[in-house]
Design goal:
60s Ribosomal Protein L30, Chain: A, alpha+beta, about 180 residues, globular, five-stranded mixed sheet
């Protein structure tokens, strides 16, 4: 028994050396929406500020998105006559500022989406929303300095309303063009 005691103590000592200390809880990792989406290191706060400056006199609403990127919303009434896809001068001025912003940030892409309210036939609304999105895309290309491969356009018609189409004011809010600015990954 006496010879076993030192052996047992030596074994316990050796095993205790193998034990690991309890892990301290890891500190939470801070995430910054300004650098979250798109290419690593994209400073969305600075880009948003730049686009706001370039479109300061326009009726465009610019918002930073939680996953990174920007959404620029332009009311269709500001940019187009009812039932038409020809750009009004106010929209052309707004798009000039957006084009300048895209030219200043050559890694960014823009996805343009046209939206309508629910008045009229669904097929016509889809066509009109596509035509308006393409008109915006074509105008940005015509302004120069932006590779057409960086721009895409689609129409959603009345499928994605911001609010119910139950009042004239709500229908006005749903008639819009949105430009989503992103950085490729």
């Amino acid at each position: 028994m006496r010879t076993q005691r030192p052996l047992i103590l030596a074994t316990l000592f050796a095993l205790s050396a193998c034990a690991t200390a309890p892990r301290s809880p890891e500190a939470p990792v801070a995430t910054t929406p300004a650098v979250a989406a798109g290419a690593p290191g994209t400073n969305w706060r600075a880009i948003e500020s730049d686009f706001r400056t370039r479109t300061a006199d326009a009726s465009a609403q610019i918002e930073g998105l939680p996953d990174g990127g920007l959404r620029i919303t332009i009311a269709a009434g500001t940019g187009f006559d009812s039932g038409k896809s020809h750009l009004k001068p106010a929209l052309a001025r707004t798009l000039a500022g957006i084009a300048d912003g895209l030219a200043a940030h050559p890694t960014l892409h823009a996805h343009i989406v046209g939206h309508t309210d629910s008045v009229g036939r669904e097929g016509y609304n889809m066509l009109l929303s596509r035509q308006r999105a393409r008109a915006v895309r074509n105008h940005l290309i015509a302004l120069g300095g932006i590779d057409a491969a960086r721009l895409s356009a689609e129409g959603k018609g009345e499928r994605e309303p911001r609010v119910d189409n139950d009042t004239p004011e709500n229908r006005r809010l749903n008639r819009r063009v949105e430009i989503r600015i992103t950085a490729p990954q």
